[in-house]
Design brief:
1 helix, single chain, about 10% helix, mainly beta, 8 strands
Protein backbone atom coordinates (compact mmCIF):
# COMPACT_ATOMS: atom_id res chain seq x y z
CA UNK A 1 0.00 0.00 0.00
CA UNK A 2 1.42 3.36 -1.02
CA UNK A 3 1.84 6.26 1.41
CA UNK A 4 -0.95 8.21 -0.36
CA UNK A 5 -3.39 5.37 0.29
CA UNK A 6 -2.38 5.20 3.96
CA UNK A 7 -2.93 8.96 4.28
CA UNK A 8 -6.33 8.67 2.62
CA UNK A 9 -7.41 5.88 4.96
CA UNK A 10 -6.16 7.89 7.95
CA UNK A 11 -8.25 10.86 6.78
CA UNK A 12 -11.27 8.58 6.45
CA UNK A 13 -10.83 7.26 9.98
CA UNK A 14 -10.36 10.82 11.28
CA UNK A 15 -13.61 11.88 9.55
CA UNK A 16 -15.53 8.95 11.04
CA UNK A 17 -14.05 9.75 14.46
CA UNK A 18 -15.03 13.42 14.13
CA UNK A 19 -18.57 12.41 13.18
CA UNK A 20 -18.82 10.07 16.17
CA UNK A 21 -17.44 12.77 18.48
CA UNK A 22 -20.02 15.25 17.20
CA UNK A 23 -22.78 12.75 17.90
CA UNK A 24 -21.42 12.09 21.39
CA UNK A 25 -21.35 15.84 22.07
CA UNK A 26 -24.97 16.10 20.90
CA UNK A 27 -25.95 13.18 23.14
CA UNK A 28 -26.33 10.71 20.28
CA UNK A 29 -25.06 7.15 20.02
CA UNK A 30 -21.38 6.55 19.40
CA UNK A 31 -21.90 3.53 17.18
CA UNK A 32 -23.23 3.50 13.61
CA UNK A 33 -26.76 2.34 12.85
CA UNK A 34 -25.96 0.37 9.69
CA UNK A 35 -23.28 -0.94 7.36
CA UNK A 36 -23.45 -0.73 3.59
CA UNK A 37 -21.86 -2.31 0.54
CA UNK A 38 -22.32 -1.01 -2.95
CA UNK A 39 -21.37 -1.92 -6.50
CA UNK A 40 -21.34 0.67 -9.24
CA UNK A 41 -20.50 1.06 -12.90
CA UNK A 42 -19.71 3.95 -15.18
CA UNK A 43 -18.14 4.06 -18.61
CA UNK A 44 -14.87 2.12 -18.27
CA UNK A 45 -14.92 2.23 -14.45
CA UNK A 46 -16.21 -0.17 -11.80
CA UNK A 47 -16.69 0.82 -8.18
CA UNK A 48 -16.89 -1.11 -4.91
CA UNK A 49 -17.89 0.73 -1.74
CA UNK A 50 -18.15 -0.13 1.96
CA UNK A 51 -19.35 2.21 4.62
CA UNK A 52 -21.28 3.00 7.76
CA UNK A 53 -24.27 5.23 8.42
CA UNK A 54 -25.65 7.13 11.39
CA UNK A 55 -29.27 8.18 11.79
CA UNK A 56 -29.37 11.80 12.94
CA UNK A 57 -32.85 11.57 14.47
CA UNK A 58 -33.90 14.60 12.41
CA UNK A 59 -37.20 14.35 10.46
CA UNK A 60 -37.52 17.69 8.60
CA UNK A 61 -40.79 16.80 6.84
CA UNK A 62 -42.53 14.77 9.54
CA UNK A 63 -42.31 11.13 10.52
CA UNK A 64 -42.12 9.86 6.92
CA UNK A 65 -38.80 11.65 6.40
CA UNK A 66 -35.41 11.08 7.97
CA UNK A 67 -31.82 12.25 7.63
CA UNK A 68 -28.78 10.05 7.98
CA UNK A 69 -25.06 10.58 7.40
CA UNK A 70 -22.90 8.03 5.62
CA UNK A 71 -19.14 7.64 5.67
CA UNK A 72 -17.75 5.46 2.90
CA UNK A 73 -14.56 4.10 1.40
CA UNK A 74 -14.67 3.26 -2.31
CA UNK A 75 -12.29 1.71 -4.78
CA UNK A 76 -12.56 2.78 -8.43
CA UNK A 77 -11.11 0.35 -10.97
CA UNK A 78 -10.65 1.39 -14.61
CA UNK A 79 -11.29 -1.51 -16.97
CA UNK A 80 -8.85 -0.34 -19.63
CA UNK A 81 -5.94 0.47 -17.33
CA UNK A 82 -2.33 -0.48 -17.96
CA UNK A 83 0.27 -1.12 -15.30
CA UNK A 84 -0.12 -2.43 -11.73
CA UNK A 85 -1.79 0.59 -10.11
CA UNK A 86 -2.78 2.97 -12.90
CA UNK A 87 -6.40 1.90 -12.99
CA UNK A 88 -7.18 2.03 -9.27
CA UNK A 89 -7.91 4.90 -6.94
CA UNK A 90 -9.43 5.16 -3.48
CA UNK A 91 -12.18 7.56 -2.48
CA UNK A 92 -13.54 8.56 0.93
CA UNK A 93 -16.87 10.29 1.31
CA UNK A 94 -19.05 11.92 3.92
CA UNK A 95 -22.60 12.48 2.70
CA UNK A 96 -25.77 13.64 4.49
CA UNK A 97 -28.86 11.98 2.98
CA UNK A 98 -32.56 12.92 3.11
CA UNK A 99 -34.93 9.95 2.86
CA UNK A 100 -38.69 9.95 2.35
CA UNK A 101 -41.26 7.15 2.66
CA UNK A 102 -44.65 7.69 1.02
CA UNK A 103 -47.89 7.76 3.03
CA UNK A 104 -50.05 6.54 0.18
CA UNK A 105 -47.79 3.72 -1.00
CA UNK A 106 -46.19 0.71 0.66
CA UNK A 107 -44.00 2.20 3.44
CA UNK A 108 -41.24 -0.33 2.75
CA UNK A 109 -40.38 1.69 -0.38
CA UNK A 110 -38.33 4.88 -0.10
CA UNK A 111 -36.69 7.58 -2.18
CA UNK A 112 -33.66 9.59 -1.15
CA UNK A 113 -31.30 12.36 -2.20
CA UNK A 114 -27.85 13.09 -0.86
CA UNK A 115 -25.15 15.71 -1.38
CA UNK A 116 -21.73 15.57 0.27
CA UNK A 117 -17.98 15.67 -0.18
CA UNK A 118 -15.41 13.12 -1.34
CA UNK A 119 -11.62 12.97 -1.68
CA UNK A 120 -9.70 10.58 -3.92
CA UNK A 121 -6.20 9.19 -3.44
CA UNK A 122 -5.11 10.82 -6.71
CA UNK A 123 -6.62 12.68 -9.65
CA UNK A 124 -8.90 10.54 -11.81
CA UNK A 125 -7.54 10.22 -15.34
CA UNK A 126 -8.54 8.00 -18.24
CA UNK A 127 -7.88 8.09 -21.98
CA UNK A 128 -10.75 10.54 -22.50
CA UNK A 129 -11.47 12.07 -19.05
CA UNK A 130 -9.37 14.04 -16.59
CA UNK A 131 -10.43 15.50 -13.23
CA UNK A 132 -8.69 18.69 -12.05
CA UNK A 133 -9.14 18.05 -8.32
CA UNK A 134 -9.05 15.13 -5.90
CA UNK A 135 -11.81 16.86 -3.89
CA UNK A 136 -15.25 16.37 -5.44
CA UNK A 137 -18.87 16.72 -4.51
CA UNK A 138 -21.10 13.65 -4.64
CA UNK A 139 -24.82 13.88 -5.23
CA UNK A 140 -27.23 11.01 -5.68
CA UNK A 141 -30.86 10.07 -6.11
CA UNK A 142 -32.10 6.60 -5.21
CA UNK A 143 -35.14 4.40 -4.89
CA UNK A 144 -35.10 1.39 -2.58
CA UNK A 145 -37.04 -1.10 -0.54
CA UNK A 146 -36.69 -2.42 3.01
CA UNK A 147 -36.96 -6.18 3.64
CA UNK A 148 -35.80 -8.87 6.13
CA UNK A 149 -37.30 -9.26 9.59
CA UNK A 150 -38.23 -5.86 11.02
CA UNK A 151 -37.12 -4.18 7.74
CA UNK A 152 -33.46 -4.32 8.82
CA UNK A 153 -32.16 -4.90 5.26
CA UNK A 154 -32.42 -2.63 2.23
CA UNK A 155 -31.69 -2.74 -1.47
CA UNK A 156 -31.49 0.48 -3.45
CA UNK A 157 -30.80 1.51 -7.03
CA UNK A 158 -28.86 4.76 -7.18
CA UNK A 159 -27.63 7.28 -9.69
CA UNK A 160 -24.60 9.17 -8.34
CA UNK A 161 -22.67 12.06 -9.90
CA UNK A 162 -19.18 13.20 -8.86
CA UNK A 163 -17.71 16.57 -9.87
CA UNK A 164 -15.81 19.45 -8.29
CA UNK A 165 -18.69 21.89 -8.78
CA UNK A 166 -16.64 24.18 -11.02
CA UNK A 167 -13.82 24.76 -8.51
CA UNK A 168 -11.21 24.09 -11.20
CA UNK A 169 -11.25 23.03 -14.84
CA UNK A 170 -11.44 20.51 -16.35
CA UNK A 171 -14.55 19.35 -14.52
CA UNK A 172 -16.09 16.58 -16.65
CA UNK A 173 -17.79 14.76 -13.76
CA UNK A 174 -18.44 11.04 -13.54
CA UNK A 175 -21.81 9.29 -13.34
CA UNK A 176 -22.35 5.88 -11.73
CA UNK A 177 -25.32 3.54 -11.63
CA UNK A 178 -25.15 1.66 -8.33
CA UNK A 179 -26.74 -1.22 -6.45
CA UNK A 180 -26.56 -0.84 -2.67
CA UNK A 181 -27.23 -3.29 0.16
CA UNK A 182 -27.68 -1.96 3.70
CA UNK A 183 -27.95 -3.96 6.93
CA UNK A 184 -29.12 -2.20 10.10
CA UNK A 185 -27.63 -3.36 13.39
CA UNK A 186 -30.79 -2.93 15.49
Amino acid sequence: MRLGNVTLIARFLFTVGALMSAQAFAGGPLIPDAMLVQWGASDHVGEVTAGLSWNTGWAPFGQRSSVYVEASLSRWMARAAKGPDQGTLWQVGLIPVLRYRSRSFDARWFTEVGVGATVTSRLYRSSDTRFATAFNFADHVAVGRSFCADARCELALRFEHFSNGGIKEPNPGKNFFQLRFVRYFE
